[in-house]
């Protein structure tokens, strides 16, 4: 019986797969430029985010709350 390695292990779909970011619309490498969102299923392209790492970092920084108090606020003097 003749076995073909390509039939048993098909990693080409993951190693060379690229995805277009939904935010910046740039095509980037799936493994290097996208976060893995589902553990244990790293062999599936659907286990990776649809937003690239750079856009994710930008979104997090933009939406991070500032922990500074406003200058108008004063502690009540009772």
Task: Kindly describe this structure.
This protein is an alpha+beta fold and 78 residues long. 29% of the residues lie in helices and 18% in strands. It is built from four helices and four strands; from the N terminus they run ααββαββα. The chain has a two-stranded antiparallel sheet. It has a two-stranded antiparallel sheet with strand order 3-4.
Comma- or semicolon-separated keywords:
78 residues, alpha+beta, two-stranded antiparallel ribbon, two-stranded antiparallel sheet
Please specify the SSE layout and strand pairing.
Blueprint: H1 5-8, H2 12-15, E1 18-20, E2 27-29, H3 30-33, E3 34-36, E4 48-52, H4 53-63
Antiparallel strand pairs: 1-2, 3-4
Q: Could you give a short description of this structure?
A:
This protein has 78 residues and is an alpha+beta fold.
Largest sheet: 2 strands, antiparallel
Q: Can you tell me the overall shape?
A: elongated
> Counting H and I runs of at least 4 residues, what is the number of helices?
4
Could you state the order of secondary-structure elements as H and E? HHEEHEEH
Which structural class do you get from the secondary structure elements?
Answer: alpha+beta
What portion of residues belong to β-strands?
15-25%
Percent range of helical residues: 25-40%
Q: What is the first-to-last residue Cα distance?
A: 89 Å
Question: Which residues sit in consecutive blocks of at least 5 with pLDDT less than 50?
Answer: none
Q: Report the strand count.
A: 4
- Mean pLDDT figure: 79
Rg: 22 Å
Q: Widest sheet: strand order?
A: 1-2
């Amino acid at each position: 019986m003749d076995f073909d390695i390509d039939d048993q292990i098909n990693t080409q779909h993951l190693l060379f797969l690229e995805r277009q970011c939904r935010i910046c619309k740039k095509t980037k490498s799936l493994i290097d430029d996208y976060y893995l969102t589902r553990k244990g299923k790293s062999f599936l392209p659907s286990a990776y985010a649809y937003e690239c790492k750079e856009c994710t970092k930008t979104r997090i920084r933009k939406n991070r709350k500032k922990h500074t108090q406003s200058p108008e606020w004063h502690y009540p003097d009772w």
